[in-house]
Amino acid sequence: MARRHKIKIKTPHEITRMRAAGETASKILMDLVKAVEPGKTTLEIDQLAKELMKESDCKSAFLGYRGFKGQICISVNEEIVHGIGGPRKIQPGDVVKLDVGIVKAGWIGDNAITVAVGAIPDETRRLLIATEESLFAAIDHARSGERLADLCGAVEEYVKPLGFTVVREFVGHGVGRDLHEEPQVPNYRPQGKSPILQPGMILAIEPMVNAGTASIRILDDGWTVVTTDGKPSSHFEHTVLVTDGEPELLTWRPRGVPGL
Predict the structure, then answer these.
(1) What digits encode the pLDDT tens for the residues 168-177?
(2) What is the pTM of this model?
């Protein structure tokens, strides 16, 4: 039997709450970007996130989720997603992925960015730019009347000709009161019948793109996802509202890869 998509349509009041959560999540993310520098540990960045969330009257959407131990996900170089802050020191030439999810007044804001720390190899530079561009290629399909499959397919269709691969085991998602709602939003074109997007749907769109193989493994901590070939990965995410007109970025931030 085909899977039925029960995608929640947010009311105007709920959208107002989601705007507030998204704005807060974006501000915290960009404040953390400024703190990423050589010599800092990933735990120090995580603890700063805790302080910023307290100041913003919100809490982490990730801490305690299925036992996750971090305030945010912080993943370096070959780490793709779900890294937990620890003693690892950030080094010149690293690429650092920051994924911030918060709960504000019962509603989720979820966004992610990849930061270049100093000079990075040209291939890695191309990877980061391509990942962000693929995110906006997908966002361009977040319009009433379009099919979800076209949005999803836009990511892989953008990065594959450039020699990059998308992670298939982890996907974007609907978001609202819950961190993960319907529908799943993979970064490749899914098979089967695809739902038509409608105003009031809110999606967390998050390309995870690897420089080399798409193959992944999970470290012994049970969370950190890494590339099996040790090549770098990149991750960008926005929470996006489908409207009658242009897609609305609820986690708006200036476009561009920090550090490049």
Answers:
(1) 999 999 999 9
(2) 0.97
